[in-house]
Amino acid sequence: MWGARIPAGTDDTALRAGHNAEVRRGGPAALAVALGAVAATEAVWRAFDRPPLALAALVALAGVAPVALVRLWPAAAALLSAAATLSGLLVSYPVTVAGACAPAVLYAAAGYRRPLRIAAPLVLPFVVYAAVPVALDRPGGRPVALVLLAIAALATAAGAARRQRDEHRRHRAAEESAAASLLEFAARGERARIVRELHDVVAHHITMIALQAEAARLATPGLPPDGARRLTAIGDTARTALTEMRRLLGVLREDVDADSGLEPQPGLHQLNTLLDEARDAGLGGGVRLIVSGAVQSLDPGVELAAYRIVQEALTNARRHAVGAAVDVELRYHGEELVVRVYDNGPGPAPQPGHGHGLTGMRERAAVVGGQVTAGAAPGCGFLVEAVLPTKGDTG
Question: What is the rounded CA–CA span in Å between residue 4 and residue 25?
């Protein structure tokens, strides 16, 4: 309406969407009007020498008018159009071009919007008409009936095929969306656990700084007042940093099992226990630990990263290489610790995007300044290799 007022702040996109929706709702009616006008004109022109012309126009309109109902009742509209078209043939009025287009539209819509068990029987009127002898005495005879039957059958099949393709596309999109959401959720959980564990390690060192500063202040005889003040400031700063870190990470720690925060973080000294658990959990081919090089004392963060990488690699082996033998190798080489976990399973490497284990391993290695590579092992199986820096124990 010309006098209608648009509310202030209305988004142009919303207006366009509403306009498009109105156009879609009015589409079938407009199509029915257009086809009706063409069909009536053609019917009058072809039946000019056989009055009454009004009846010819009415029959032609009856064949295309159900197009207006295609959104509400596609199956019923298809049957109405078929009945009107066949009735026109029975009273010797030929099928118009627009009258042949209408069943194509209606049967395609019925095949798309209704199950095939409902849409397929809709072509039976054309089958019956083509089979009865009376079709031979009508305009066009049986060829016209067969053409109409072919149009209806092909349109129904095309609509059903498109519906199946769209359903398959929607199903795949839903699966991909669910997989992406699950991967993101798992990655966030893994990052939360990494931050929690690093918090525990860093908290230990900050606490040691505070305790050693206090002990130095109390245990050093003849300490100048300025030195005592500086040691007190060091202790206070360490305790403040610890408090702020715990406050900032408090929400993140609530997302993890509260009981796990009461246990010490694992390290390489617990690796044998982890391998025993892996053997009991289904790695029937055996798990072997190989240590080479001069064993060094590592920073707790590095030990924790190495332990978690081995743990995740064993989990992957148990999942993708059931019954395979697994070797866990720790190689101390200068300023690097090389952690290698490889199996003799079938391989190949898991496809990217399927799971978050490899991503979590790479994130753990990156936190301590290392890196992780993974892929098919030489010969067969799967190999995970982490290169981590070795640092002296600062505790």
Answer: 21
